[in-house]
Amino acid sequence: MSDAHRDPGGPNPERALSAENLPGQRGQGGEEIRVQRGMFGANNGGDTSGYGGLVRSVRLPGPASRPYGGWFDEVADELEGALEEQGLLPGNAIEKTVVDRGELTFHIEREHLVRVARTLRDDPALRFELCTGVSGVHYPGDKGRELHAVYHLRSITHNRVIRLEVSAPDGDPHIPSLFEVYPTNDWHERETYDFFGIVFDGHPALTRIMMPDDWQGFPQRKDYPLGGIPVEYKGAQIPAPDQRRSYS
């Protein structure tokens, strides 16, 4: 497909990057959060993939440097300018800006999340009117910020998509709720709380939504024990995942 026929609403259709400024590179750069052994990182005999000897470094993309390319710079400039007009230094609210795989992510300090989100929604040059949800992520090796919440924002006015990412330590899993800015996050924040244990301060009814009310722990954390129940299938007894033999 020629450039003339590409969808102008794609992630970053106008980006032009020089060889020395390729943002969000992983490779040997970025932030190493752990070294994974085996295909799935299992260390209790649960890796049945046959790749138990595989060793690789798990890295998060590092911060990008300007120019980001295309409309990414416009959004970053407008956001930083709007925060300055409110008397907030952008560097105090935006921990880093990441451009990776054609997508733009602002890493926000959690105490400034609500103000940044409201600015992105209300500023005429930004107009990210819709939040399509929040995703939880758990990086046990990312010390001091093991829990991450990722908000996906869409501007219907400008046909743009960005992300906000906020982190919190395992010992203090509190992040401000965005319910008052984006009411559609009601159930999304409940689900993230249910599975990851992130406490969204200010949410009107932060209760479990998928698991039973008396469930212990948060099942999608990576340190949650791998378990299950044996299953009978056509006369054969299939053991629970944590009881299957390992090929590593």
Strand fraction band?
25-35%
The largest sheet is: 5 strands, mixed
Helical run tally: 4
Query: Low-confidence spans: pLDDT under 50, at least 5 residues?
Result: 1-8, 16-27
Q: What's the rounded overall pLDDT mean?
A: 85
Spatial shape: globular
Q: Tell me the strand order in the biggest sheet.
A: 3-4-7-6-5
- What helical percentage do the residues reach? 10-25%
- Distance between the first and last residues' Cα: 45 Å
Order of helices and strands: EEHHEEHEEEEHEEE
Structure, explained:
The chain is an alpha+beta fold and 248 residues long. Helix content is 16%, strand content 26%. It has helices spanning 72-85, 90-93, 113-122, 185-196, and strands at 31-37, 55-60, 94-100, 103-108, 130-138, 147-155, 160-168, 174-176, 199-201, 231-233, 236-238. The strands form four sheets. The chain has a five-stranded mixed β-sheet. A two-stranded antiparallel ribbon has the order 1-2. A two-stranded parallel ribbon has the order 8-9. A hairpin with a 2-residue loop joins strand 10 and strand 11. The model is unreliable at 1-8 and 16-27 (pLDDT under 50). This is NADH-quinone oxidoreductase subunit C. Residues 107-228 form the NADH:ubiquinone oxidoreductase 30kDa subunit domain. Its EC number is 7.1.1.-. Keywords: Cell membrane, Membrane, NAD, Quinone, Translocase, Transport. It catalyses: a quinone + NADH + 5 H(+)(in) = a quinol + NAD(+) + 4 H(+)(out).
